[in-house]
Every structure is written in structure tokens, then in C-alpha cells.
Amino acid sequence: MKAARYLACVVVLIVCGLSLAANWLAPAGYAKQFREVPDSPPSRAHLLGTDELGRDRFARTLYGTRISLLLAPAAALVSTALAALIGGIAGYLGGMWLKMARAFTDLFLSLPWLFLLITVRALLPLNVSPLVSVLITFLVLGLLGWAASARVLSTSADALRSSDFVLQARASGLDGPRLFLVHVLPNLKPILYAQFWISIPVFILSEANLGVLGLGVAEPLPSWGSLLRELEGLISFREEPWRLVPLLLLIVVMTSFQLLLSNEEVTA
Amino acid sequence: MLVRKIVGHLASIAALVLLGGLLSATLVRLAPGFDTDERELDPSLSAESLRAIRAERASQHNILRFYATYLRGAAHGDLGTSQALGQPVGNLLRERWPVTLRIAGVGLLLGWLLASTLAFTACLWQRPPGEVLGTALSGAFLCIPAAVLALASVIFNSPGYLAIALIVFPKIYRYSRNLLAKAYAMPHITAARARGLGELRILARHALPVAGPQMIALAGVTISIALGAAIPVESLCGLPGIGQLAWQAALSRDLPLLVNLTVLVTLVTLLANSGADVMNYVLRPPEA
Amino acid sequence: MTGHPLSFRKRGRLSFRAKRGISFILALSCLLTLAAVAQNSSQLRFCLRTEPKTFDPLLVDDESSLAIRYLTGGVLTRVDRHTQELTPELAESWKVTPDGKQINFKLRHDVHFSDGTAFSADDVAFTMKRLMDPTLHSPVGDEFRAAGNAVITKVIAPDQVSITFPGPIVGIDRIFDELVIVSAHSLKKEAAVLGPFMVAEYKAGSSVLLERNPNYWKKDSQGRRLPYLDSIHLDIQSNRDVEMLRFKRGELDLINVIDTDYFDRLASSSPQLVHDAGPSLDSDFLWFNQVAAASIPEYKRAWFRSANFRRAVSEALNREDIARIVYNGHAQPAVGPVSPANRFWFNSTLKPEPHNPQASLDRLKADGFHMQNGTLVDKSGNPVEFSIVTNAGSKPRERMGVLIQEDLGKIGMKVNLVTLDFPSLIERISQKFNYEAALLGFHNVSLDPTDQMNIWMSSAENHAWNPQQKSPETAWEAEIDKLMRAQAETSDAKKRKQSFDRVQEIVYEQAPFIYLVNLNALSAVSTSVAGANPGILFPQTFWNAERLTLTGTATAKR
Q: What is the C-alpha separation between B81 and C8, in angstroms, rounded?
């Protein structure tokens, strides 16, 4: 386990380092179109080949890492916090509050939020800068992504409310927010961590899908999501295996992160 | 007591389902593009015909009136007519519901099977490879876009439910593994181990009772996750189910269809989650 | 709700209940067609990309319904998709009066609908009556109404019918290519057809099964009754990757319009399967919002309304690169509204705008634009930045947008590319006008300029850059209006061509639409299909479906 953690740590550091050094490693930038060599296989000039417009895939991967690796966890944090607030507090308060929170959560899980996203796009000006658009996209994803885990959290918190040690703590005079923070919240950690780790890749992928609605990262800015969208039309992976690199990178980084923190997830 | 709880649940379910329908109708109505039709771009249509096309949606402009009409129809068993497909919504749902029920149901079962096997292995084995294997496998499938999984299922000729299983399994794994690990970290399990109890016994007697309620709640939630996964899978695999229908309806802003679909999804979600609550209530330790 | 109840009634009659057994298999796997096909050797299979919206031939307006109408409907005259000439079908012969207002058809004898009822002039009269019913809002009917509503159909004899229009209709004989004759007497109404195939089964969201019409009137030179095929199985499948995959596996016999990526991939492995029929009538183009009331800043409207600005943008674009990179060379730089593929109407004196950033900058300078630290600014100092909206989900268009973004970046213009879902896009470009520039394409199905009246007339709804003008806002639009009216009012082909040639010149000079490329008609047809001769006109691969056969080797392969 230790070796695995060590390896994971190295991977994360390398990826972060590479993405920060993108300006030096890929001086041509992510938007430059080498129009003479579109869709080319890896070569010395283009380590991962070029995309269908002749842009260097290596550069796009590095720059895309910056955006996705920064914003997806931030959005995951928002959704996890919301889940903790709504699911955790309602479960902890119990009674009417719990019922209402559960009803709200269930409703939230069933509504067609796609239309809200379409509306959000309509409210933004067309000339919004790519960065603002991607920030808003991740924020919206964070605001919409909490419901499933809140439902599980409410059950956990509900059970905790009547557990021995919370009753003891209450008997010893601890009450209100402090009791929640000190005794209840730490016990919700397994679910909160799960929510957090699941949200990151889910948000990275969703961001790309929202490109369809004119949200997300706008061209020519790259993100992991938009790089992964390239895979959707790929019938034969064997012919052009280098196209899978962004996917492998995402998997490796996510797995490394989870291994790094797998211990902290459960120990309070 | 139990009966009263169930009746209470059912009443709130009915109210929420109605509210869900109204809210979804409002969301659709307010989204841009509601008042449009692809035919607007057809140069062969005269101005008069275009006006007629626009007038078609006039009955839906006032969302409250639309919803009242819809409810009145629904009370008599008429769920309205889909605009895009020109068929009674009732027929469409009846034809397509079994398809989704099957692939989402089987997919969900498979997903749970896979996830819980991995989670139990990771906990029972108590060795790093189990943990690393579970993390890597779930991580990998979490990162692959649903569309790619669906396409792969077409490429390899595998059934649609397999794609759904692979989409939901990593999420189930992450939650259940964390819940189990948390249970295992509790002092009384360490004590039980010290007493020399068998691993399976510890799992059944000590770990599961702790993690159980949350896992049951998780089971309820995964039903809506599986329904969500059905959308890309059905659309890409050409499976005529509810998911495919929902996607078509969304693209054409088919209000009558969308409202019915939301009502249906709300109903399923509520039943699943309330079912989980009731189950937890029944299974609760007697002293609590 | 005028259109829908009709199409719904129609569909209610046609659709068969999904058989439980089959839907069970369907739920289990994506292999539906394989199972269904195994028993039937002479079944042609291909995909429709969208759900057919109607089976009523008079209400057809989408491509899938159009395909079904083409395969099932009988028409009086048919534009041969290969020669582009008009050929007799249900009408043995016809005569147009010199004033261009009346057409007299002599009908074929011994023709029966698929249900056995005899075809006669009554059916033509009934079809015309239904078509002209103002409450039907038939898109086909709109073309017949071009000269007014008062169309009179007279049955002269059981095999003779005359149709009189209130004014001259250009290409009066050609518009009947679109008019499918429906039965006046059959109890099955629209389900009784005169075409080679008839709809046998429709499973919403899944497939349409067409079966051979046993009563189809046409025979081949050996006296064998057409069509040769027993049935056609149409899968409703919007995903092109899946379509390609199934074609490669032999589960589909043809892809009517194939994406360039897949075309090239197939071409390299099995060149006998792919067909590039050359430039089609389809074009992609860019336009700027010139609507006076649109909610865009005044200085931007001034740019967009300046012909110099539009021409400069046009000159800055590298059409060769678009054709080469986006369409892998299967497209040609476009000239204007008429594709070179439209042999008669294309104005061959015009050449595609050459890529010339310097000329573009010079032109902009004439309007007071100048460069400032690499950014183009207008005479009041506003930096040139605008957004281009296009529809999401079309890879070629997204890629084209990025190339345009880069090309215009080189002359200092900042372009933001926004992809929108189709309903949102339509709302912006045709109702709210809250956009700056749009990138779209037209699927042209008709050769005649009269069908473009609703685009070029300044009062029209589809006059996309500035629709529904009360009176033409510019002199050149007024001139186009005049020319379009002139070409519609005479049936003298030479005069019409003169007028429309001038329209093409004005459009070239003023660039209200900046035409980018004409796509080639690319298709893939399995070697098991004999008799296929893919062309550029819809339906490219199956326009001669009645004469297609499936060879034995392919049956064995299955």
C-alpha cells in the first residue's frame, strides 16, 4: 500500500508540474493550427499527434489539465458542501426538517435540469469570455450535483442522531452547531469523500457535454472534457491508440488521488 | 404505526409528483427555444404556414392553464399527445417502459453485484491489492464518458444493460467501500477481530448492521442514477426506451411528453427512496 | 394544432403494435435487425437519422419522411435524379398552356393502388383538393399556392385532368414531382399507395418496415414487375458512429450520406464501397445579423450592414483549408447560392472568393478600420469582436467555426464561437434576433430558383440576415426582389436564367450570406447491392430503389 501511495504521489506531482510548465513544454500553444498536418500521428514535433484541425494534442492536454484539475475539484467541493448542509443538517435535526429535505432532494433528483442549463446559457451574453463561461459552468455543475449523496447522508445523520455517543454528548451539555461539527460531521466523512471523488470526473465529463449547449470551455481553449469528446467518434481504438492518452491520464490521476487519500477518508 | 407511516409516505409522494410535473413544465416553458420549430428554417413554407406552426404551441403558453388541462386529461386516463412523435403519450410510455425497466434494472443489479463484490473483497481481504484493484477499476470506469461506454457496447455487441452496469458500478463502489471501511474502523470490530471471530461473521454481524441503513439509502438513490444512465445508452444503442424518448423530447421541447416523463421519473425516484426509508424503519434495531 | 391531428390519425392506422416477442429481443441487444433479417433474403436495410415526423405524403417536411414518401408515393411526373430531366410517371404525357397557367395531364391506364383500387383522374382531383385545403398547411401546397389560392382542378375524362393556376407558375410540370397522389376512394386512405413500396410496420423510435407494393405498375424491360426488392428495413438511428459500425459489419446495405472521416477510412480499406458523386447542392455559409431592431450595439450593426466589412470577412477566409481540413477534400470552395452541381442555374462567370487577407485589410481600411496592437478597431475605436453561433452536434460545423476564428484572428478580429442546441439557435436567428453572426448550412433539395423565393425576397421569413422587411431596406435588396419576381413571372428559361445570374452576382458582391463550401455527395453502398448509382440529388443512393437488387453472395454472407 505504501509503495502504491508513493507512486501515486509521484504521478500527481509530475502531472501538476507538467501542466504548470506547459508554456515551456509546448511553446506553440494550444490554439495554433498546423494546417498542413491535421490528424497526424505522434512525431517529434507533436508528441501526441495533432487533432483534426492540426492543433498539437500534447499542448492541448497540458493546458487542458490546468483548467480541469483546478475547477473540477472546486465544483466538487461546492456540491459536497451542499450535500453536507442539506443532507447532514436535515438528518441531524430530524423530524419535519428531515422530511422536507428528503422531499426536496427527491424532487431535485427527478427534474429535467437540462432546461435550466439552456436557460443559463441564454442569460449569458454571447461574447462572454471563455474563462467566465467555464467558471459558471462548473459552478452550476457544483450546484446541481449534490442530491444523490444528500439522500444517503440524511440517512446517516438520522441514524447518528439517535446513536449512543451523540446522546452522551448531548447529555454532557454539548448542543447545536458544535455538536454537529464535532460529532456528526466527521462520521459523515465516508459519504462526503465518496461524493467528492465521484464528482470530479463526473464534472470533468459533464463540462464537455455542456459544450453542446454553448456552455463549458469555449474554443479554442482546451479541457480534459473536450479532449475526451474526441473519443466519442472513435470506432477503432487500435488504429490510433494515442488518442486515448487524455483518458488514460484522467484515469491515472484520479486513481492516484484516491489512493493518496484513501486512509484519511475513513479515519476521523 | 407502520401502516400510518406508509400512508403518510404515499400522500406526500402524490403531492410531490404533482409538484414535479408542474416544475418541469415551468423549466421547459422558460427555456429558450420553446416556441420554435425546425420547420421555421424551411424556405418552401409560406408565411401563413409558419404562422400556423407557431400557433400550434399557443395552448401551452400559459403554463398553469396547460398543467390544469393536462391534469384534467390525466384524471381521465388521457396523458396528452406528443408533439414531436404525434402519438398518444400513454401509448409511448406503455411501449417503451418495459425496455428501460429491463436494461436499467438488470444493469443496476449487475452494477451492485460488481461493486459490492469489489468492496467486500477490499474489506475482507485486508491487503493492498484489493484496495488498489477496486480503486483503479472504479476510477477507470468513472472517467470513461458514458457515450464511449455505450458505443463500446455497440462495438462489442454487448447488451445495453452491461453499459449501464459499468456506468453505475463505480459510484456504488465508492460509496459502499467507504461506508464499509468506516464500519470496519469502529472499535467493536477491532475487538471482535481480537476475539478471533471469522471475517465473514464480522461482516455479517458487525460491519453490515452499521453500514446497512446507508447502503439501503444508496440503493434507492442508484435507481435514479441508473435511469439517468439509460439516456445515453438507449440513444446510442438504438434501444427504444424511456431514456431515448426523453432525449428526443428534450431536443424538440415536447412539453406534453416531458411533463409525463418527469412525473414518471419523480414517481420512481420517490417510491425508490421512500421504499428505502420504510425498509430502514422496519429493519431498525428494536431498542432505538 | 392543424397539422398534428391529421398526421396522428394517419399514424394510428399505420402503426402496428410492437410485438411483445420482438421488443423483448430488442431490449436484450442492439442486434434487432440481424434477427429480423435472417429470414428475408431480399431486404434492403439502411438508417433514417431522425424519427419520421409524418407518414402523410402531403405534410412531409423532414428528411426521414421525405425518404419514406419517395419510396412509397406515386407522382405524376418525376425529376430523374440522375439526368435532372423530367420523366413521365403516373402521367403518360402532359401539356402546359403557353401562358404557363394551366397543365393538362394524360394519365396512365391500368394502374392500381396497393390495396387494389384503380387509379384515375378522380384521385388527382381529390389530392389537389386536399392539398389546397388552407387548414392543412401542407408545405408542398405552399409551392402550388405561389400564384394564389384559386387553383382549379378539372376532371376531363377518367384518364385526363387539367389543373389551372391563377397566375403563371414557373416549372409548373416540375412541382408535381413533389405531389404524391392519394386515393379518393380507398378505405385505407393514405395507406393505399402508388409507389414501389408501402409502409408495413412502424415502431416509433426504432424502425420502419416497407414492403413491396404488389400492385406497383412499373415493369422492367423483360416484363418483370418492379420492384425487385421484397422489403426495405429502415432503422431509426441518429448516431453516425453506430451507423458506420453496423455498415461495416454488413448489417446495413448503404449509408445515404456518410461523413468525410468515415468515407476516407472506408476508402482506404475497401474503396469499392464508397462513392463520391462530386459537389452536391448543399452548402455551408456564414451571415451577419443586419436586423434593424436586433439587440446588438449600434456600432456593430454598422459593421454588419457594411458590404465592405462582409466582403472583407469573406476574403479573409481560407475556403480551400475548410474544404481540405474539415471535409478532407470532399468539398469545393463555394461561390454563391447555386452550387456548380446545379448545371443549368449556376452562374459560371463567378469564381470562389480567393483567400486574401491583405485585400481584406485594405477593404476594411476604406471603412475606417485600422490595426491597433494586433487588434482591429473601427473608426470610433471599438475593437472588432463578435460571436458566431452554430448548431451543436455537427462536428464539421464546429471545426469550420474554429478555422474561421483563426482566419479572422489573423486580421485582428476576435471571434467567439458558441454552439447552441437547435431550438435555442432557431429562436435566436428567426425570432429574437439576439445573435451577431451565424454559421449554418442548407440542404438544398430543389434545383429551381423559384424554391428560393422565401430566402431572397426581402419580405420573406427566411431572408435570414434581415427578414420580413416592410420594404427593401437597401438598393441591392430591392434589385434582388425585382429580379426574383421577374424570374418567377416568365416561363422563358433564358430570361429567367439572366435574372437569376444577376441575383447571384449581387449576392457575391454584397455577401449577405458568405458562402463557404459546397459539400460533395458522399455515400457508401455495400457490394451486395446491385444497380446502385449514387447521385447528388436526394435520395442519393436509393433514388432507383425499385430497380435495386441484392446479390446472392451477400445473402450467403449474412
A: 9
Q: Is the pTM of this model over 0.80?
A: yes
- Between CA B66 and CA B76 the distance in angstroms is 16
pLDDT at position C11 is: 26
The proportion of chain C whose per-residue pLDDT surpasses 90, expressed as a percent, equals: 59
Q: Are B131 and B276 in contact (CB under 8 A)?
A: no
What's the gap in Å between the CA of A56 and the closest CA on chain B? Answer: 22
Domain range annotation of chain B: 2-283
Task: Tell me how long chain A is.
Answer: 268
Q: Tell me the three-class secondary structure of C460-498, residue by residue.
A: CCCCCCCCCCCCCCCHHHHHHHHHHHHHHHCCCHHHHHH
H-helix or E-strand spanning residue B110: helix B89-125
Min Cα separation B48/chain A (Å): 29
Return left, alpha or beta for A254; rule: phi > 0 is left, psi -120 to 50 is alpha, else beta.
alpha
Q: Are residues A233 and C402, on separate chains, in Cβ contact within 8 Å?
A: no
Q: How does pLDDT run across C460-516, given as a tens digit for each residue?
A: 888 999 999 999 999 999 999 999 999 888 878 899 999 999 999 999 999 999 999
How far apart, in whole angstroms, are the C-alpha atoms of residue A217 and residue A135?
9
Indicate the residue of A110, A114, A191 with minimum beta-carbon distance to B269: A110
CATH number 1.10.3720.10 given to B2-283: yes
The CA-based diameter of chain C, rounded to the nearest angstrom, is 79
Mutate: best of C238, C240, C282, C458, partner B, most B CBs <10 A: C238
Beta bridge partners of C419: C390
Separation CA C172–CA A135 (nearest Å): 57
**Radius of gyration, alpha carbons of chain B:** 24
Instruction: Give the amino acid at B77.
Output: G
Nearest residue in chain B measured CA to CA from A155:
B214
Residues paired with residue C415 on neighbouring β-strands, in sequence order: C386
Name the residue with cell 435566436.
C428
Q: How do the pLDDT tens digits run along chain A, 268 residues long? A: 677 788 888 988 998 898 888 888 888 888 889 988 888 888 888 888 888 889 999 999 999 888 888 899 999 999 999 999 898 888 888 888 888 898 899 899 888 888 998 888 888 888 888 888 889 999 999 999 999 889 888 888 888 887 777 788 888 877 778 888 887 888 888 888 888 888 888 898 888 788 777 787 888 888 888 888 777 766 666 678 888 888 888 888 888 888 877 665 554 3
Contact status of A235 with chain C (Cβ, < 8 Å): yes
**Angle of CA points A226, A248, A264, to nearest 5°:** 105
Interface of C with B in 468-527 (CB under 8 A): none
Q: Enter the C-alpha cell of residue A199.
A: 464528482
**C114: burial class by Cβ within 10 Å (0-12, 13-18, 19+)?**
buried
CB-based contact C347:C336 (threshold 8 Å): yes
Helix, strand, or coil (residue A3)? helix
Interchain contact B223–A (C-beta under 8 A): no
Residues in C closer than 8 angstroms to A218, CB to CB, are 416-418
Q: Collect all residues of chain B within an 8 Å Cβ-Cβ radius of residue A159.
A: 213-214
Q: What is the mean pLDDT of chain B?
A: 85
Measured in angstroms, the CA of C158 and the nearest CA of chain A are apart by 56
DSSP letters for C341-376: TSTTT--TT--PPP--HHHHHHHHHHTT-EEETTEE
Q: What is the ipTM of this complex?
A: 0.86
User: CB neighbours of B263 closer than 8 A, spacing ≥ 6?
Assistant: B17, B18, B20, B21, B24
Phi-psi category of residue C328: left, alpha or beta, with phi > 0 → left and psi -120 to 50 → alpha: left
Contact B86 C54 (CB under 8 A): yes
